[in-house]
Amino acid sequence: MKALVYTQPHQVELQERPYPQLEKDEVILRIDAVGICGSDLHAYHGHDPRRLPGLVLGHELAGTVVDSAAKHVSSGTRVTANPLITCGYCEYCVQGRNNLCVNRTMIGMTRPGAFAEYMSIPASSLIDMPQDMNTVQAALTEPAATALHAINLTMRALARPLPECRALVIGGGAIGMLSALLLRSYGCSDVTMAEVNPLRRQSAERHASCKTCNPLDSSPPENTFDFVIDAVGAKPTRNAALMSVKPGGVVMHIGLQDWASEIDMRKLTLAEITLLGTYTYTTADMRATVNALYRGAFGNLEWVETRPMSNGVKAFDDLDKGRTASAKVVMLPSE
């Protein structure tokens, strides 16, 4: 089968790989659509020690079951999947917070991912979807669930309801764009996006009705926003998030471009800022996101770009060099 393989920093190759083996309680999926995630690009740059060369990346998927060793899953079923493979018995799993599972592994990290024609995965990771759901739409479940999980966590901490808040999203990648779209769907009408790429600013203005700014030219105004999402996670964006949030406001930290940096602890303390971290999503979030996508809560998704997987090498290069306006490229292995 064809697979797009991470071979060394700044290089992916289309290779022939063996068809997956079918293990007990697992299924084999034909991958119908798979998105390129920011974490895949992080690995592509050689910045993720957990993802080593020789790995098939990819974890944002929609597929069709072609072989099943699980009694309750039939061949021909169209599904998406939770790429986190969790144990089901640790304290976090039994609490329903399986995104924090202490024994978790992940497709596209600890086992081959979805940048391939076929992939194996435990049946317990499958997420049901309407069988008439658009394939590309379904492949956005994973990143959209990240946005949904983060915003739902934030709403518990906000002093006022979300529709009354001014929100700032830092970063116009897929998570930033999906967050902006969901904020609008939740009734937040005052959303600003800070993004350095002019193509992505135009896309945010057009598709998410955001106000936008280029933080390289002018920083977001200080002490202005009730709710700030840092969808980048670099030292400058962390500083910008804390600078722009109002006293008593909430900063949600999603991105992990840099693994450590200093932050303004004085403002955090004196202004009673709530700083929240988030990691992925629960299975319940994934199921809720499928329903949200299906009913159009994230808009028409016209900003998403599709390409055949045979174009995957160029897709990574274009994303790396900022040559695409789209915050999300979805590859189609069958084309």
Architecture overview:
- With 335 residues, the protein is of the alpha/beta class.
- Helix content is 27%, strand content 27%.
- Strands 3, 5, 6, 9, 10, 17 and 18 form a 7-stranded mixed beta sheet that branches. A 6-stranded parallel beta sheet has the order 13-12-11-14-15-16, sandwiched between helices.
- Helix 4 crosses helix 5 (174-185).
- The two termini are 13 Å apart.
Q: What is the average per-residue confidence, as pLDDT, rounded to a whole number? A: 95
Tally of discrete structural domains: 2
Topology order in helix (H) and strand (E) letters: EEEHEEEEHEEEHHEHEHEEHEHEHEHE
Number of strands: 18
Class from helix and strand fractions:
alpha/beta
User: Which fold does the CATH topology of the largest domain refer to?
Assistant: Quinone Oxidoreductase, Chain A, domain 1
Uncertain segments are: none
Annotated CATH homologous superfamily of the largest domain = Medium-chain alcohol dehydrogenases, catalytic domain
What is the class of the largest domain in the CATH system?
Answer: Alpha Beta
Report strand %.
25-35%
Major sheet details: 7 strands, mixed
Query: What's the end-to-end separation, in Å?
Result: 13 Å
How much helicity do the residues have?
A: 25-40%
The helix count comes to: 10
Rg over CA atoms, rounded to whole Å, is: 19 Å
Shape: globular
> In the CATH classification, which architecture of the largest domain applies?
Alpha-Beta Complex
